[in-house]
Amino acid sequence: MCGIVGYIGKKEKKKLILEGLGELEYRGYDSAGIAVMKDGKIDAFKATGKLSNLKEKTKNFTSNGEGIAIGHTRWATHGKPTEINAHPHFGKHSYIVHNGIIENYREIKEMLTKKGVVFLSQTDTEVVVYLFEHNLENSKNAFEAFEKTVISLKGAYAILLITTIEPNSIFFAKNAAPLIIGKNSDEVFFGSSDAPLIGHVKEVCYLEDGQYGILDKNEIKLYLNAKKVLPIFKDLPQDRSFAQKEGFRFFMEKEIYEQSSVLGETLMGRIKDNEISLEEIDEHLLDGINAVKICACGTSYHAGLTAGYLFERFAKIRTDVVIASEFRYKDPLLTKDTLFIVISQSGETADTLEALKIAKNAGLKTLAICNVDNSSIVRLADTTILTRAGIEKGVASTKAFATQVATLWLLSIFIAQKRKTADKKSLKLEIDTLLKIPTSLHVDNAVHEKIKRLSKRYLHGHGFFFIGRDIFYPLALEGALKLKEISYLHAEGYPAGEMKHGPIALVDSKLFTVALLPKTMLYDKTKSNIEELSARDATILVISPEQFELADDFIKTKNSSHAMNEFFEMMIILQLLALEIAVRLGNDVDMPRNLAKSVTVE
Ligand code: G6P
After folding, report:
1. Same domain? 401 vs 533
2. How do residues 52-89 score in pLDDT, each as one tens digit?
3. Is residue 169 lining ligand 1, measured as CB closer than 6 Å?
4. What is the CATH number of the domain that holds 239?
5. Which domain holds residue 386?
6. In terms of domains, do 189 and 280 share one?
7. 396 alpha carbon to ligand 1 midpoint, in Å?
8. Among this protein's residues, is 295 annotated catalytic?
């Protein structure tokens, strides 16, 4: 995801900014840029690809002496990863870097276009710098123009703006995207995370949502709702790997906790006026389509299986879900009335890529659900919906899965809208629930503590069954996969109703069963299946909003009226359970043995 660095002071600014951006590289990006203002003049450079390309471009540029600099690594959301779309974006006198998504950028762009502004890029960011310059025309000063600009923005943003009109200052604003100020006696730093500030400053101010202001090296003027507020500085821990993990023990843990905010990014701009709006999708994509085939591997396959239920139930479209490595050699029967969907976090998985090629060669319309823009799968598919999970470092996928499921849920509603298979009331219910999902994905500390304690009872035994029905069956598969991947314990996911057809033969007190028992879906049926296991003395951990008397262990979830709320809450519990068991076993949670994050071989 995007990264921001800023600096006011005497040091060599180009070097500082490039080093700072280097600290943010791990978040993933596809282009980068820098702007340096000195003596009222701004020099700017941008390059696609790695930071080394920007370093090469700026190798003859020096920036010693009093001045200001801003830098950015961009992870494309609006517009391709080209040099024009890279930040900083600029107007006549001003340059801006921005993380996040400006939801109302189209309205602003339309208004400014009518006034004669010509936009170069496809980004949402460029409108902000032009809006600021437009506001300058009828404001007392640059700060007033900036304040007016910030007030009219909707969405998520961390912004740094520099302008020759105010040559000693940086304007900044923060809402739903992180921005941090660090200060020494004669210099100021900005970062979109701690990492670039470590080693440079000892204290930092973590800006709050809605705050904006202007600072020079002597003074920070900070505002919230047009009222001046005092910046609060805190000690900055000086350990870099700690900073990248933002205080969590593992990247996987950080990524589990991040799911609430990244889901906000997945949804951003995609729900408008109580409708799903997917601007990436051509309006004719679904013309002549009567079926969907989904292909993927691993965790992405589990997201696909979940979508299979959502698509058939809600969008009323026949859906077939196949593991990509199986699809490749089964001489699949492909008909042109089928929309072929591939799901991949990395966009590079060889089996999924090959499956996509087969579908393309057969003349099918293809759609990728992917986390990495410009990856091989994205480049090959006719259409892509990016999941916007940000870079995922833990090999065991967590937030990528959550965003895939949310994207597929969005898509199922979108298809239902287009095919008119759902009435207004049920569409509204889906959209209202979807909008609240980021909130319901907050990790409950008490639940996490309980799982930490419980985990010690699940370290031995001869295996795990994860069971669930309907969409909770793919979730059970995913829970079992998470546990296998990082604990190296044997775990299998099963449809709860299938146990009696074979697997139940394995059951005894050393067989641990993790049972997903949602209230909104097949509660009584699943309960009976769990009772069958209990009767055979299985050790059972039940996850449910309803107390279950036969459970050996019980994790209570919230009461909810929608299955997807229960799905996401249980997903977090399963991820934390796998994490805590693996931690107790002393395993390398982020880099488990034998596994790779991106499997580019068959
Ligand atoms: C590898 C990873 C899994 C992942 C699978 C599919 O096996 O270890 O975590 O689910 O590939 O990856 P993709 O990038 O296509 O989603």
Report:
1. no
2. 999 999 999 999 999 999 999 997 777 788 999 999 99
3. no
4. 3.60.20.10
5. 251-440
6. no
7. 8
8. no
